[in-house]
Amino acid sequence: MFPEHRVFVKEGTTVTLLQMSYIIEVERCGSINRAAQSLFISQSALSTAIAEVEKELGITVFHRTNRGVSLTDDGRSLIAMITPIVEASRKINRYYSEQNAEDRVRLSISSQRYPFCAQAFVEFLHLIDEPRVDVSLKETEMSSVISEVSSRQSELGIMFVSNMTEHFIRHILDEKHLEFFELSTIKPQVYMRKEHPLAKERSVRIEQLFDFPYVMFTQVEANMNYAEEAIAGKASDFARVVYVNDRATIYNIMAHTDCVSTGSGVLPVGYGDDRLISVPLADAENEMRIGYIHLRGLPLTALEQQFVDILRRILDNV
What's the CATH number for 6-102? Predict the structure, then answer.
């Protein structure tokens, strides 16, 4: 709301900015009751504030009827005088609010649904020493990661390319003036519950997975080049496919069923799910090259570099 600065309206009288804003809101709403609801104050408190102004100035601001209120001639004159004052006060408040907001350090990260990225983000939070900072991590599908960074809603995007998808993905990135920087190359793994029929295998072939339901993340884009699970082939290769939207759900489904999925296999302690294991995919021709995307030609800020360094260290220790 407005500070209690006093402004002289007539010689020998004063009205506060708060009272002015009340009068303007009542005139806008045409009703003391509706204005009170809009201002989140009681109707009696608002009526008292208006009465105090009328007494102070020696005028009647509003005609009051059962249908609401309307301005008197004096009220219209008062509104004409106080509206520029209240607007100027709001402009000053907005200006300094924006100035303060510009002092904040910001970092927005979009990522495919990787538990190791969540781990990196938590470690990053522990290291931030900026006094004013806004940071965010959004887990989503690859197409949205690319879109978020391209539109500058996120500064960094964490994703992967494979032998099969690299040509397609790099073409998309070039069109959007983005660059991909590789951090680590990982052999694909199969996720399953610890009691799964394939859990004791040293490695599994893709053909063995076809006997089980396959769970994967819903994609906004139908093109499988965007899907992490594409390293195990097309969804149509599986007789039974389950689609979900988030990591927690996919973990719970695999923990309680014979559903399988594929991915990096990186499940950090405390960030994955101890009911699940990962088994190497024996005949996978696709390696997962995990990295980050960034606007082409734009250097990393100190905060962005700090997060990338943490993520690289985690992946190096896999």
Answer: 1.10.10.10
Q: What is the pLDDT of residues 54-74, one digit of tens each?
A: 999 999 999 999 889 999 999
Given this structure, which CATH class describes domain 105-316?
alpha beta
- Rounded to whole angstroms, the Cα distance separating 65 from 61 reads 13
Sign of CA dihedral 284, 286, 287, 290: negative
Q: How far is CA 271 from the centre of its chain?
A: 20
Task: Output the pTM of the full model.
Answer: 0.65
Contact 97, 53 (CB under 8 A): no
CB neighbour list of residue 184: distance below 8 Å, 6 or more residues apart: 289, 290, 291, 312, 315, 316, 318
Region of poorest pLDDT, from 126-130, 239-243, 279-283: 126-130
Q: Please tell me the predicted confidence (pLDDT) of residue 1.
A: 43
Residues 16-28 pLDDT 10s = 898 999 999 999 9
Beta 105-111 vs 214-217: how paired, if at all?
A: unpaired
Other Cβ atoms within 10 Å of 145 Cβ, number: 24
In the chain, what are the domain boundaries?
6-102, 105-316
Per-residue H/E/C for the chain: CCCCCEEECCCCCEEEHHHHHHHHHHHHHCCHHHHHHHHCCCHHHHHHHHHHHHHHHCCCCEEEECCEEEECHHHHHHHHHHHHHHHHHHHHHHHHHHHHHHCCEEEEEEECCCHHHHHHHHHHHHHCCCCCEEEEEEECCHHHHHHHHHCCCCCEEEEEECCCCHHHHHHHHHHCCEEEEEEEEECCEEEEECCCCCCCCCCECHHHHCCCCEEEECCCCCCHHHCHHHHHCCHHHCCCEEEECCHHHHHHHHHHCCCEEEECCCCCCCCCCCCEEEEEECCCCCCEEEEEEEECCCCCCHHHHHHHHHHHHHHHCC
Q: What's the pLDDT tens digit per position in 31-53? A: 999 999 888 888 898 999 999 99
